[in-house]
């Protein structure tokens, strides 16, 4: 007998999960493509907490201890969004969950917050959440080892699911091998310039390396708030350098607002290589989206990016940068055109395993 979308095996009732956040693509893809799935409460609207959010979910209302005290759910699963929470607020949230007998699952996405220059605030938050969680999940073996070393806790390793929708992913896979292009396109995206990024450290190497490769183009994209005068996070040295290099033909510069999902997938799919300019961090959804779209990722050695899936690596962290390693990675990508992307079949199988892993974790905590 085939199970309908909301049917569950005998003895297993549907679960209601308070996921923080609920609407993020990562969380949405924790459920199976079809078949039984938990009910995840919608993110409350931060301006009208009694209604479901239709757009912005931050700051997450679910992290308010008063919300956790009154809402109906079986289990609380925290992913991210707690940046603005003090350790005291997180302790109050944990206390409410304890009082109500509601298990807390915490997926450790970031062991170092990519938005924070100073790591202390995030470390203090983790020092509350990691010891308090009834179950811990993380995305890579390397992150699990660090959690064990820092807190003496074991975390289930459940990989990052696909980011790109399955239809677009399938179309990207079908386009490989791609028709010959006029150029080999190496991309760097400075976005809104997170604290973890150091593009000026790596860009001169990329400019020099790409100039020496036949048919290669270096493309840099960034948001207006960073690269235009008057922007809220304007970085004058970076903006000046990029415009100077663009004017002399060393790179192509595109300054724009945030992409829609469809626009972002079109952009990433147009690249042969995406270079991550991070000097610290832990995991990357950007990396997963590139793999979905068959775009090779060149990732730094900081964090656990290389644990997520096949990438080309270069030495880059807060203390060190090896220009030769970045040059070698770009040259290898140009010469070998490695096929490091994820196939539709792989992503579907992975998503089924991810959903089963989460269901097992949830039900193990809710046994009478």
Automatic annotation (TrEMBL):
SUPFAM superfamilies xref list: UDP-Glycosyltransferase/glycogen phosphorylase
Pfam families recorded: Glyco_transf_4
Keywords for the protein's UniProt record, in alphabetical order: Glycosyltransferase, Transferase
Molecular function terms from GO: glycosyltransferase activity
Protein known as: Glycosyltransferase family 1 protein
Span list, region Disordered: 28-53
Residue span, Glycosyltransferase subfamily 4-like N-terminal domain: 48-167
Keyword Membrane set for record: no
Organism name: Nocardioides seonyuensis
InterPro entries, A to Z: Glyco_trans_4-like_N (IPR028098)
